[in-house]
Amino acid sequence: MALLLVPFSAQGARISELSEATIWEQVVRFFQFRDPSVRYAVAGSILLGISCGILGSFIVVRKMSLFGDALSHAVLPGVALGFMWNMSKDPVAIFIGATLAGLLGAAVVHWVKESTRLKEDTALGLVLASFYAVGVALTTMINQLPTGNQSGVDKFMFGQASAIGADDIKLMATITVLVLVCMALLYKEFLVTSFDVNFARVIGFPAQVIHYILMMLLAFSVVTALQAVGVVLVSAMLITPAATAYLLTDRMHRMVVLSAVFGVLAGVVGAFVSFLDDHLATGPIIVLAASLVFLAAFCFAPRHGVVVAWWRQRSKSARVSRENTLKSIYHVLEARDFEGEGVSIRELAQRRKETLEESQKLSHALVNHRLATITGDDILLAPAGWSRACEIVRNHRLWELYLTNEAKIASDHVHEDAEIIEHVLGEEVVRELERKLKYARQDPHGKPIPGLSDIRRGTGVYRREDLVGYGKR
Questions:
Q1: Residues 300 and 324 reside in one and the same domain
Q2: What are phi and psi of 464, to 5 degrees?
Q3: 132 with 72: CB under 8 angstroms?
Q4: In this structure, are 291 and 340 located in the same domain?
Q5: Do 290 and 235 lie in a common domain?
Q6: pLDDT tens figures, 49-75
Q7: CA 219, CA 259: separation in Å to the nearest integer?
Q8: How far apart are CA 404 and CA 108, in angstroms?
Q9: Assuming Cys at both sites, which of 64, 95, 116, 164 could form a disulfide with 44, CB separation 3.0 to 4.6 Å?
């Protein structure tokens, strides 16, 4: 971080302002950090990503995302008043004005919620619209002044990372350090009040004070982020990295770290891309980079990604289909007292009440998973296939017997439930069922229940000769 602020001899006033340079030359120049505007933009983006990422995690888990959006819009009047204080873009004056406006907006939300029948979301909408309207009006007034067009106040609407200067970096660094110190000292308090405020009060935590500290830090971070991404987009930097991290982990400390990392990544990518093309504003590119990371997590997060969930469901459906086919083969063999080594495709189709083509497709699925082999028109179960067929049949019949004996359900009403549960019963549950049922050998319909010894041997009637088929025992 310090290296980014070290002065170099080369000059460059604006990020993304290069003439007659190739893309490769721009890339090299960016990572050399020779241009002051690049150094300040990257440093500011990193600081923005850290502070907003950390605080955004607590905003997301507290379900206060709309509050962050309202606060980011509520600071605009303070920005305008801070400029009007001495008619210059004094970072300290603008910071004080914007912070006061943000805290006033938060206080108004609380007052409206507590003194009326209105819910918090309604109060947030009122504050967002009214404060933002006042800010736009004041900004318009400033732009109509003789030097208004050169004031640069309008850049706070959508951000201009290239305009970040040394004073802005110092202020952003101060706020980021403050956020890190508060998190180090009060992490446990923030954590408990975020998930169970009533429990926090019971154990003696000053929940309301912790809430106000978080709101103050949030206001500080929002104000310092205005220069980079603007009033309109700053809420995205609070929510998007945190929402991305939320999809990837269930542990709060990991979420905080990941959110900060994603915020920094989005900031650096935004600064880099906007440097390559002078028509691309840095703030929107930062937000788009964060959104792309969120999209990747939304699709491919190990536990919550929609693509992963779709693939998991598809794999589960295919597995259930294979297991049902194995069970049908077992039933065909059982119906003829296990005479013969295999089951024909036609027999399987008749058992499953489907076409020959469908049975052939299911049979080839078993072959592809090494659960069976096909010889001519016959399907012969491999050892793994026979064992799994016995397990499925065992699970089904055990569950039927359990529902009949323990739940007192009629034997003709237990089949459909057993059809579902047979695919999800684990071995520990099966062992418990067997103990409860005193290792019964027949289901409610008088059919034999395959035992553990049958499954482990690979057959209760056959013994395995080779991978092609079975001989009779």
A1: no
A2: -75, 130
A3: no
A4: no
A5: yes
A6: 899 899 999 999 988 888 877 887 888
A7: 18
A8: 63
A9: 164
